[in-house]
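Record 1 of the preview.
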Amino acid sequence: MAEKTLYTLYDIPGNSVKYLAWSPNMWKARLALNYKGVPYKTEWIEYPDIAPLAKRIGALHTSVKSDGTLRYTVPIVRNVRTGSAVSESYRIAQALERDHPEPPLFPPGREDAIEAVERAFSTSVAPPSLGLVVVRVHNQLNDASKAYFSRMCEEPLGAPIDQFGTPEHWILVRDALAPIAAAADARGESDTFLVGKTETYADIIAAAWLGWARRMCGAGTQEWAEVEKWHGGRWGRLVQALKKWEYVDDPSQPDEAV
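->
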C-alpha cells in the first residue's frame, strides 16, 4: 500500500484493541478516509508530541486554552505529495469531500443537518461519554501519554478521573442520544441513517462516538447489548451498517471490537 499512499493520518495508540485505534475523533477521520477509499497510512504519536508535530508540519491549532495558549490536537491528516496538513476531524472530512467528492459525505442540501449532528454529539454526547470511559482510556494508553491525558481531562470533568465510569453514565449517554434519534425519526427517511436514506458524515460521527464506548467497555458486554437496543435499535443498526469501514489503513486490519 505504501507506493500509492496519499495521506498520513496521525493517531494516538492504545492497547485496548488489536490495531491500536481507539479515539472517537481519530475514528471520524479514519472512517471518512475508508469510506472515500483513499489510501493512507497511520503514524502513531503520543500526546506530548502532538504540538511539536503540528507546528513542524504546519497543522493549525484547534482551540485556545483558558490561559490563551494554543491547543494542538489530532487527528491530523497530511497530504504526502503536497505536504499540506489539516487538523480537526470535521475540517478533515470537508477537505476530503473537496478533493475526493465521490462517494459524498455531505450530499447537497444536507450540510446544515450534518453540522447539527456534529454539534449535538460534541456538546451533549461527548461529555457523558468521556465520563463513562475516561478511566479505561487512561489505563490503555502508553506510559508516555497517561499523565498528559489525566491533566487534559480533569479540567473539563472537574474532578480526578478515578471518580468517573459509574453505571449512571450509561443513562446520561442514552439520554443525550435521544434528541438525535428523535430528529432522525422525524425525518422519516431511514431507521438506520441519521440524515437521508444513505450514509453521510453524520453517521460517521455517530459510529465514531458509539465505537468509543464499544471499544473501551467491550463489544460482548451486556452494556453494549443494551446500547444496540436504545431508541428502537437505531444505534445498533447504524453501527452495523458502517462496520465495513472500520479498519486501520486497509481492510486486512479490521477493528477488533466489532
